[in-house]
Specification:
Layout (H helix, E strand, L loop, with lengths): L1 H20 L4 E5 L5 H11 L3 E4 H10 L3 H10 L7 H13 L7 E4 L5 H12 L7 E6 L2 H15 L7 H15 L2 H7 L3 E5 L4 H13 L2
Parallel strand pairs: 1-3, 1-4, 2-3, 4-5
Helix pairs in contact: 2-10, 3-4, 3-5, 4-5, 7-8
Length: 212
Amino acid sequence: MMSFFKKIGKCIANLFITKHNTMTNIVLFGKPGAGKGTQAEVLKEKYDLIHLSTGDIFRFNMKNDTELGKLAKSYINKGDLVPDEVTINMLKSEVEKHTDANGFLFDGFPRTTPQAEALDAFLATKEWKVTATIALEADDEVLVQRLLERGKTSGRADDQDEAKIRNRYEEYNEKTAPLIDFYQGQGKFHSVNGIGEIEEVTSRLSEVIDQL
């Protein structure tokens, strides 16, 4: 009888390990206006993933005056960048709420190589890992016009000033583009054409994800 329960216990443990090792964790990135948010909404439903947008997480924490939100505000109010440690701790807090998830869709994080290293280290503590990173590629000129058009209805000041838009792209090229090398080194980088109808881009993304 005892060996029977041992076998059952081993089967349950194996199922637990298999689930954790086969989680689909996708990092979706691209320049502002590339359509990350739109595609993330579609993909999270299609693949039953938890969508983690760092922008949404920041806004939630600051609006609700959480300890991390107050800490982030203290840097922002001084005109300083929020340290990576604060950002990753916010992300950890959200992940901890969904430890039984089929996987995560990281949108807006990591933005730098140190953040990518921190994400890898955190996932490793759960025996998880990033499955793949997918970049939505698009020509700068196309994206500039897309954001200027969006700015007419979004009300966002940073979508209405071409100089500010181009400055965001320079920052992306300086800080985020190096992630390509980081994830290529792990054999996890994929590039997808981000121009086209929403359904077309979703189809291209799905082709990548379905082959993982």
